[in-house]
Design goal:
The chain contains nine helices and twelve strands. With 461 residues, it is α+β, with helices and mostly antiparallel strands. The chain has three domains: 160 residues, Beta-Lactamase (2-Layer Sandwich), CATH 3.30.450; 78 residues; 147 residues, 2-Layer Sandwich (Heat Shock Protein 90), CATH 3.30.565.10. The longest helix is centred in the first third of the chain and has 52 residues.
């Protein structure tokens, strides 16, 4: 998955959103749970202190009595973290009662710590227990039998804050695991959703590749309603391109026929005139005919190149050319080695490939001593993202050429050796055709010491 793909952007955006939202949601849920646990813990302490105060201060007799432990069994376990205490406030010599869990220790008094009571008359304080453990203390101040002039007593109950924290910690761990699994599940679901949602685009990609390779002429198949208009527009664009090419071919053909007859008449009339004017007119008319032929050929090549969906198998094109040239140069015993895997396709017209390959092979056979090699392969684009290139390499064991003369080859009509047959147009035609297909021709030194032509063209495979 590439970083600049739609799938990566959608998944990364979803993951980033979840990374922000889930922690916030987890924090809110944890805070609400912590508040509920704290309220439940405080309600338990409040219930215990009120029950102990009723049992102790409303019993008969002048002094408080130890309440029956029917509220919390941990009050009987030494240093369990759950404690109660009844402490006299007005008479230091009066009896002080404590739970069995406190043993010889005492609880800190919120009253003595100057903590103000809440509207219910209860005082709350977080302190340290007998073992230094954190505890939460609730205290109520009352008199024996609720008599206004009787001695006051501070009834305190304490519970371990560790009990509260352990429940918060356990819930936090479970919540973190649940949210992590939820996030992972949502990212996985998003990945599946994105992959499933982008499948029609992959079908479009394969359809366009089939059109480019010549296996199809239209973008077919059923697509979602959101993408169907694009399919229609692409098919209309392909058809429009074909119509433009057809009109261009027709116009080029009409122009060729319209010019050939007047030029032929001018040339014939000028040749009958043996004077200097006639010769000059015939010379210029021939130049005009050559120029018209040149640019009409280029127009026809451009029209063929612009057609989408044209693909040519390379091997069936090269094999007849090789056999024909071996017969032509049989007297010189020229051997042509062809290495072309099956299935390689050129994205273009067959006659253009025949013309380019034929010119390169014929040129190599003219200069070769005994051997010509032909190999075809497909290379990936240099940037790793563009279309692949079909590379045709033709080398010979002839005398070769120095770099400065190689640069001159390909100029129209230029021949470096007049003793060899030909018009000097072969490499120029190859260069023009290659440029029309956005390819290129490069001349170098072959492995046999002669000249090697490397022709790069678009691949349809």
């Amino acid at each position: 998955m590439r970083f600049n793909s739609l799938a990566f952007r959608l998944i990364a955006t979803s993951a980033a959103w979840l990374a922000v939202v889930l922690p916030i949601a987890g924090y809110i849920i944890f805070r609400l749970y912590s508040e509920d646990v704290q309220a439940s813990f405080d309600q338990r302490l409040e219930k215990l202190v009120n029950s102990i105060a009723v049992d102790s201060l409303l019993s008969g007799g002048a002094d408080p009595v130890a309440p029956l432990n029917r509220y919390e069994p941990l009050f009987e376990e030494t240093q369990s973290g759950w404690y109660w205490q009844i402490k006299p406030l007005d008479d230091p010599t009066a009896l002080q009662l404590v739970s069995a869990s406190l043993a010889t220790a005492t609880l800190p008094s919120p009253y003595e710590a100057k903590i103000a009571p809440d509207p219910m008359g209860q005082r709350w304080m977080n302190a340290k227990g007998p073992l230094g453990e954190p505890i939460r203390v609730i205290e109520v101040v009352d008199t024996k039998g609720h008599q206004g002039n009787a001695p006051r007593y501070a009834v305190s109950v304490a519970g371990p804050i560790a009990w509260l924290e352990s429940r918060n910690r356990n819930f936090r761990n479970r919540l973190s695991i649940a949210l992590a699994l939820t996030g992972l599940g949502l990212v996985t679901a998003t990945l599946f959703q994105v992959r499933f949602g982008l499948l029609p685009l992959q079908r479009i990609e394969k359809g366009l590749a089939a059109i480019r390779s010549g296996d199809a002429v239209r973008l077919e198949g059923s697509l979602p309603a959101e993408i169907e208009p694009m399919q229609s527009e692409l098919n209309a664009l392909i058809q429009s391109n074909q119509d433009i090419i057809d009109r261009a071919r027709t116009q080029v053909g009409n122009l060729a026929h319209a010019l050939k007859t007047p030029l032929a008449v001018i040339i014939n009339e000028a040749r009958e005139d043996k004077g200097a004017i006639g010769e000059k007119v015939a010379e210029q008319a021939n130049i005009m005919r050559d120029q018209i032929t040149l640019y009409l050929d280029r127009a026809r090549m451009a029209a063929r190149v612009g057609v989408m969906g044209r693909a040519t198998d390379v091997q069936p094109v090269l094999e007849p050319i090789v056999r024909a040239l071996e017969r032509i140069y049989r007297e010189r015993d020229i051997r042509i080695d062809l290495l072309c895997p099956t299935g390689l396709k050129f994205q273009g017209e067959r006659q253009d490939l025949e013309e380019m390959a034929g010119n390169l092979l014929d040129n190599a056979c003219k200069w070769a001593r005994t051997r010509v090699s032909v190999s075809v392969e497909v290379e990936a684009a240099r940037d790793g993202r563009g279309a692949r290139r079909l590379v045709l390499m033709v080398g010979d064991d002839g005398p070769g050429l120095p770099p400065d003369q190689r640069a001159k080859l390909g100029q129209r009509g230029l021949r470096l050796d007049e003793t060899k047959p030909g018009s000097g147009l072969g490499l120029s035609i190859v260069t023009d055709l290659a440029q029309q297909y956005r390819g290129r021709l490069h001349l170098g030194e072959s492995a046999f010491g002669g000249l090697e032509a490397r022709l790069e063209l678009p691949s349809a495979g």
